[in-house]
Design brief:
Strand content: 5-15%
Largest sheet: 5 strands, mixed
Structural class: alpha+beta
Radius of gyration: 22 Å
Order of helices and strands: HHHHHHHHEEHEHEE
Helix content: 40-55%
CATH topology of the largest domain: Cytidine Deaminase, domain 2
CATH superfamily of the largest domain: Cytidine Deaminase, domain 2
Number of helices: 10
Distance between the termini: 76 Å
Number of strands: 5
CATH class of the largest domain: Alpha Beta
């Protein structure tokens, strides 16, 4: 005759230990698959989810890419349930909102929180499966004033005309703008078309009396800055901001 303790699934004790380990240092010492495993236990109550956590990270590449993966892929390819997908996407939304607030609500110029800005761009664009083109608006001292998604393209192309950027900048009273688009291929290296577009927008911006401060390309594998790479030169009138 089996006792009630013997009938208790082994994974329940493992889940309790996961929670205890997380509470010690907020998960700092836990590998990514264990953090994901802990999350999955919140949505999948009666199952050993360690194999699933490892499988998801192997499939998508990293913990961040699992959380940022399109919901349709999590549902159709990974075969996750709706509750699990909602949990992961809710976490993704919380992450982007928290990161956004750190530079959007700051009284400091954007370069003082540049890493947060890049993190935000990665969170909202880095794992997208089609190209998006966004423009971020700033005043003369690089205080953030808003942003706009200008257009969405295909898996390897987005069509944008410099006039669309100029119109958006003027409508939002921007003195400086930062452009951002993503490469679903994962590599943020600019194409020749990207370089031509950037030059065209930079030249038109000078005529229309605002500045193209930077253009960042976002990929799963990193972020490329035209300004840092020397493709966009600092303006002479800048006061070392």
């Amino acid at each position: 005759m089996t006792t009630q303790a013997e009938e208790k699934p082994l994974y329940l004790g493992h889940r309790a230990r996961l929670k205890e380990r997380f509470m010690v240092d907020n998960g700092a010492s836990m590998p990514d698959y264990e953090l994901l495993e802990l999350l999955l236990t919140m949505a999948i109550p009666r199952r050993d989810v360690k194999p699933l956590a490892k499988k998801l990270i192997s499939k998508f590449g990293s913990l961040g890419e699992v959380i940022q993966a399109p919901a349709i892929r999590l549902l159709d390819e990974a075969k996750l349930g709706v509750n699990t997908v909602v949990l992961l996407k809710a976490i993704a939304s919380c992450m982007s909102r928290i990161t956004y607030a750190k530079f959007a609500d700051s009284d400091e110029p954007i370069i003082s929180s540049w890493e947060m800005f890049e993190d935000y761009c990665w969170q909202i664009m880095g794992c997208k499966e089609v190209e998006e083109f966004r423009v971020f608006f700033f005043d003369n001292d690089l205080h953030y004033k808003g942003s706009k998604l200008l257009t969405t393209g295909t898996i390897n192309k987005v069509s944008i005309h410099p006039r669309e950027v100029v119109k958006a900048a003027l409508e939002n009273n921007a003195v400086k703008v930062i452009l951002a688009h993503n490469h679903p291929s994962g590599e943020p290296k600019p194409s020749e078309a990207d370089k031509r577009l950037t030059r065209g927008i930079e030249e038109l911006a000078e005529v229309m009396d605002f500045e193209l401060y930077d253009h960042v390309i976002v990929g799963k594998n990193g972020i490329f800055s035209f300004r840092n790479a020397g493709y966009i030169r600092p303006k002479k009138y800048e006061n070392n901001i």
